[in-house]
Amino acid sequence: MISKKFILTIAGALLLLLALTFGLFDKPGKKPKRIECVGEDMMVPSFTALDLKGEKVNFADFRGKVILLDFWATWCPPCREGIPYFNELYSRHKKDGLEVIGVSLDQVSPGDVQKFLDKLGVKYVNLMGNDEVLKIFNNIPGMGPIRGIPTTFLIDRQGQICHRFVGLTAKRVLEDAIKPLLEGKT
């Protein structure tokens, strides 16, 4: 007859194996999968979107800057948690050429999005996402569509996509990816 202790040991080992398989013990802030620079032939196409005041903003106007382009929404808890990181990174590195651009995927008015951002003291540019912008970023070869938010693209000074981060990404991970681009080491 099999002892109770043996059965409990086997059950515990199986639970541990399942937990490891599904990543339940991953450390917070673990580096997400990065997609390296796609190549000079894969630049972000120019696009235009409306800012929260209803004015057209052309993405090409940001060429020459390192860009964190974050797709987010007010109803998304990980997005809300990451916004202070972006604000801090922007404040710290804007003098070095960093531009942070939020792309709200909310289905509310731009005024409602602005009120939300004002409460957080956000200083960086925010745009209202639209089908055209999503189509551009959903059709980048080798990356696949945006399947969840937040999704953040790191774009170098020439407009080349260097990294894509899916989900809440630790500030340290973002900063480690940004610094070489700001210093011109990529």
Q: What are the SSEs and their pairings?
A:
Elements (H helix, E strand, L loop, with lengths): L3 H18 L26 E4 L4 E3 L7 E7 L4 H17 L4 E7 L5 H11 L4 E4 L2 H8 L12 E5 L5 E6 L4 H12 L4
Parallel strand pairs: 3-4, 4-5
Antiparallel strand pairs: 1-2, 1-5, 3-6, 6-7
How many structural domains? 2
Label the structural class.
Answer: alpha/beta
SSE topology string: HEEEHEHEHEEH
Determine the mean pLDDT: 83
CATH fold-level name of the largest domain: Glutaredoxin
Distance between the termini: 64 Å
CATH architecture of the largest domain: 3-Layer(aba) Sandwich
Range of helix content: 25-40%
Question: What would you call the shape?
Answer: globular
Describe this structure as you would to a colleague.
- This protein has 5 helices and 7 strands, in the order αβββαβαβαββα.
- With 186 residues, it is α/β, with parallel strands linked by helices.
- It folds into 2 domains: 1-30; 32-182, Glutaredoxin, CATH 3.40.30.10.
- The protein has a 7-stranded mixed sheet, covered by helices on one side.
- Strand 4 (98-104), helix 3 (110-120) and strand 5 form a beta-alpha-beta unit.
- The model is unreliable at 17-36 (pLDDT under 50).
